[in-house]
Specification:
This protein has 317 residues and is of the alpha/beta class. It contains 16 helices and five strands.
Amino acid sequence: MTAKEDRRASIKLTTVDDLFTTEEDRKGQQKEQIKDIPLSDISDFLDHPFKVKADDAMLEMAESVKQYGVLVPVLVRPKTDGGFEMVAGHRRKKASELAGIESIPCIVRELDDDQATIIMVDSNLQREHVSPSEKAFAYRMKLNAMKRQAGRPSKENAAQVGQDINGKYSVEILAEQVGESRNQIKRFIRLTELIPPILEMVDDKQIAFSPAVEISYLAEKEQQALLETIQAEDCTPSLAQAQRMKKLSQDGKLNGDVILGIMTEEKPNQKEKLTIPKDRLSRFFPQDYSALQMEEVIMQLVETWYRRKQRERDHER
């Protein structure tokens, strides 16, 4: 075969069917297909920041999956070494495991790392309850992905500004998307600098958000010393105390003894209070009695009881 004949043979002629295929048909052929994939072939997203717990809500989901199956397909992407990585649908996957189902309907989509990260974060932030630590790591992951998509900095300008074509910073775009201020986004991301036990206390509402942000500026060794003091003294830092520790840390003057001294100071909000609802007491008093009048009567009764008990103890001696 001559070179000319070889070129002719390699030319693929358009068929009649191809000529009369509509644009809609061609798009339909390119649409993503849904297929069942074994759970064992799907790994979790790398460094997935959202917790998947076997709590009551998860058990309810598992029961629903057992009865009706997974109604909304999950989103996965192919892995270079085989198998798939979950992008959106970790809770549905867990519910399927608990329900004893071996495969799950999946949309398979080719995504790079940054595209997958953004979709993963966005799909999980829609949940009703998202803990501070989940937001912290999710915001950090998405912001870094957005910055990379906006373009890497040149060697001459090492600062990664992460601006889009309209000149907006990535953190501004993220703030608009999630309904937070730029400053609040940065404050959440600061929480990722906390050691895990303190971050867990923030999630459990044992440490308030604002003091936690200030504590995040402490070195790891200082945070560990603070944690030991919290556990030993059964107390948590106020915003003022956290700010003082941050300043002392920046000045190189913070250590375990200083932390202990600050944390053992009595705070007004740490004074123990006894509160009895008025409706529990009202049946013992006239209707026109105020809360203050009730308190005075109760204190008189307590004093009378205390003096009687004191006389009894003296008599026994």
